[in-house]
Design a protein that fits this description.
- Helix content is 42%, strand content 16%.
- It has 301 residues and is of the alpha+beta class.
- A hairpin with a 4-residue loop joins strand 3 (111-112) and strand 4.
Length: 301
């Protein structure tokens, strides 16, 4: 039997829900464009870096361009429009880690260049401008679209390995929930209202061993809590991760829906206005919308 086309969100998960991929894109957004820049700042192996860069070029998130050094022609990498559009996912991931994961050395502030202030990030509906969270939305899974079991077959889970030591890349909490495709998917299931072990397992076609591991890790992280009847509920920390999930879905639908036959497999809809959620990120200081040129996760020098 011929394999079904992955849905748009499944494709987005298969591509972005990977620690090294996200860290490479983060550094590209901060100006890294050459192989040695990623290798030296991330302490990533040559084999892993080469594989991720090749995957990102093949997926259209990075493009190569030639440059000359020492009389030799070499290649460097630049974000494409598709790759640069991951900035919302990167910013919400950074903001969640800074807000909810204790660390000895705090992450740098997110700075809104328009008002010059260290800023918090508010997640809003682009259609009506209102703030949104998981309680303000409904999630619809399109019947008949391939599930995560199809993703697992087409994109075998990759080992994360040792995280970099530098504070820019050490995002241990966020990478538990977005740096692994099964973790991101289990969190998404919880955010859509699934609570029981069997309900999550059936919806995701995930093995009991993998699901038990992710649920255990999420309880230890404080994203989920066990209830008296043995089910799981989102904590405030877990609810606060909604923008990460929403940005992943938003990006996936924008860049993969209908491309190469990929169906719309999942949508988030804003209850108040009825629109399919397109995420707008807003500065909590001045109320203006962010764009990728006006915000950075690093305090400008």
């Amino acid at each position: 039997m011929r394999a079904q086309k992955l849905g748009a969100v499944g494709r987005g998960l298969g591509l972005l829900a990977d620690t090294w991929t996200l860290l490479i894109l983060q550094r590209a957004a901060l100006g890294v464009c050459r192989y040695a820049g990623w290798r030296d700042t991330l302490n990533i192996s040559d084999a892993t870096l080469s594989a991720r860069l090749r995957s990102l070029v093949d997926a259209g998130l990075l493009q190569t361009r030639p440059y000359r050094e020492g009389g030799r022609e070499r290649r460097e990498y630049a974000l494409t429009e598709r790759g640069a559009d991951v900035w919302k996912l990167l910013i919400t991931t950074w903001h969640w880690e800074k807000s909810w994961v204790p660390r000895e050395v705090p992450l740098p502030d997110i700075v809104h260049r328009a008002c010059g202030a260290p800023a918090g990030v508010l997640t809003c509906c682009a259609a009506c401008g209102e703030r949104v969270g998981p309680r303000d939305t409904t999630v619809h899974r399109t019947p008949g679209t391939p599930g995560l079991e199809q993703l697992a077959r087409q994109h075998p889970r990759r080992t994360r390995g040792r995280l970099p030591d530098d504070p820019m890349s050490l995002l241990p909490g966020a990478m538990e929930i977005i740096g692994d495709r099964w973790g991101a998917t289990v969190l998404g299931a919880a955010l859509t209202g699934l609570r029981s072990f069997s309900g999550i397992a059936d919806a995701l076609a995930i093995s009991p061993e993998v699901l038990s591991d992710r649920l255990r890790r999420f309880v230890e992280l404080g994203v989920l809590a066990r209830t008296g009847d043995g089910s799981y509920r989102l904590t405030e920390k877990g609810i606060a991760s909604f923008p990460i999930f929403a940005c992943l879905v938003d990006w996936s639908l924008r860049w993969h829906a209908g491309i190469d036959g990929s169906p719309v497999d999942l949508t988030i809809r804003h209850r108040a206005c009825g629109a399919v959620l397109q995420v707008r990120l807003v500065c909590d200081r001045c109320g203006a919308a962010f764009d990728r040129g006006s915000v950075s996760p690093v305090q400008p020098s």
